[in-house]
Amino acid sequence: xxxxxxxxxxxxxxxxxxxxxxxxxxxxxxxxxxxxxxxxxxxxxxxxxxxxxxxxxxxxxxxxxxxxxxxxxxxxxxxxxxxxxxxxxxxxxxxxxxxxxxxxxxxxxxxxxxxxxxxxxxxxxxxxxxxxxxxxxxxxxxxxxxxxxxxxxxxxxxxxxxxxxxxxxxxxxxxxxxxxxxxxxxxxxxxxxxxxxxxxxxxxxxxxxxxxxxxxxxxxxxxxxxxxxxxxxxxxxxxxxxxxxxxxxxxxxxxxxxxxxxxxxxxxxxxxxxxxxxxxxxxxxxxxxxxxx
Length: 293
Prior knowledge:
Radius of gyration: 21 Å
Number of strands: 0
Strand content: under 5%
Order of helices and strands: HHHHHHHH
Helix content: over 70%
């Protein structure tokens, strides 16, 4: 078991899974509060379809990565890592901006579905809410798997992600039951910071792949070599392998690789950790009456 790859997958599955679980918990809690608990199956069907589609997408991406010959394999892997890091970065800032309004917007959407008499709309609402997280998770995990050096690392990422998602599901049940033991603001803030470093590692690994196949020709010289102190591969490199799996660490980085990693971390962390501007308070959400019949 590659501990670093396992931890990387666990963090990804936990963070993205908690977002989806929180959304479903809000929808179900509001349905229960308005006397529409019987429509829970519609929500679960929509969420299940989104989960299944996300798994199919992840498998398709993983198979695609391994189906190319050099140098197209490295090119595809690099582009997948860049896409994964870009989507995750966008979602981090989206969640940061929308967190305070998500609950009210979801309840308003449930109201519209119930008032319109369309229970299918509830399934669609749950599907849309979960598929966004599912696609992001599939892309990010595919990028992490592509960044591993062997099948053991890839398996460790997937096992970690499954365990992270399972923990997220349990937390979702806690959210529904009204648990307040977990400080969501703190949880999302610090797991978001961890994802910033993981995304930076994916970007730097993508740059390394492009250097290997000659797409990038500037800054290809080795910046420093600390392989005798903290190697990232080989015997006696457990810590280095963990750092590589988590944050894209390498003991012999190219100039371009290091510059991309450092620039991304500094810029994105500075933007992500800055205070959030509070939006004007909105009026209370109306309570939907139970559907008849």
